[in-house]
């Protein structure tokens, strides 16, 4: 008997691409090709690293635009990890489907932080180029420093 024909006549109800009402087992329609424990472990590690990096960046007024979105993204990633662990523990497919929303928010906030960091890097390069052009266009700016022999004779 052809199962594909039966499937097309009576498709299972799905939420966000995950069939509802069936347990999260190896025999279920959805097969997860990764080890959930390993995934949640690495995601937790990544979230902690992002929180530390975001907090250290947020201490600077200039880098706060990068640090704050990174902290918020890491908190969403930690929430995702908690939801996935709960979904696996309770064998709840709907909770697993809902947890992907937190992962989406993580990537969105992480993307915003990446865009901000690249924009700040580009602005820094432009400021550096302007500063170098200013120094090259004013050669007399540091002339007195090198003419003042008292500066070097004090040693």
Molecular structure report:
This protein is 72% helix and 3% strand. It is mainly alpha-helical. The chain has a two-stranded antiparallel sheet. Helix 2 runs antiparallel to helix 3. The radius of gyration is 27 Å and the shape is rod-shaped.
Largest sheet strand order: 1-2
Given as residue ranges, the uncertain stretches (5+ residues, pLDDT < 50) are 1-24, 26-30
Number of strands: 2
Radius of gyration: 27 Å
Topology:
Elements: H1 3-9, E1 14-15, E2 18-19, H2 36-58, H3 64-90, H4 93-137, H5 143-147, H6 149-153
Antiparallel strand pairs: 1-2
Features:
about 160 residues, rod-shaped, 2 strands, 6 helices, single chain, mainly alpha, two-stranded antiparallel ribbon
Question: Briefly, what is this?
Answer:
The chain is mostly helical. The chain is built from 6 helices and 2 strands, in the order H-E-E-H-H-H-H-H.
């Amino acid at each position: 008997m052809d199962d594909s024909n039966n499937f097309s006549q009576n498709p299972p109800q799905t939420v966000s691409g995950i069939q509802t009402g069936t347990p999260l087992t190896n025999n279920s329609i959805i097969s997860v090709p990764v080890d959930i424990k390993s995934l949640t472990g690495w995601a937790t590690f990544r979230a902690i690293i992002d929180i530390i990096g975001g907090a250290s960046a947020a201490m600077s007024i200039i880098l706060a635009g990068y640090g704050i979105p990174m902290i918020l993204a890491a908190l969403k990633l930690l929430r995702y990890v908690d939801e996935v662990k709960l979904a696996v523990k309770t064998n709840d497919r709907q909770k697993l489907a809902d947890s992907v929303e937190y992962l989406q928010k993580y990537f969105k906030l992480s993307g915003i932080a990446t865009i901000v960091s690249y924009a700040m890097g580009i602005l820094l390069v432009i400021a550096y180029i302007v500063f170098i052009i200013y120094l090259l266009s004013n050669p007399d700016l540091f002339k007195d420093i090198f003419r003042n022999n008292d500066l070097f004779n004090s040693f």
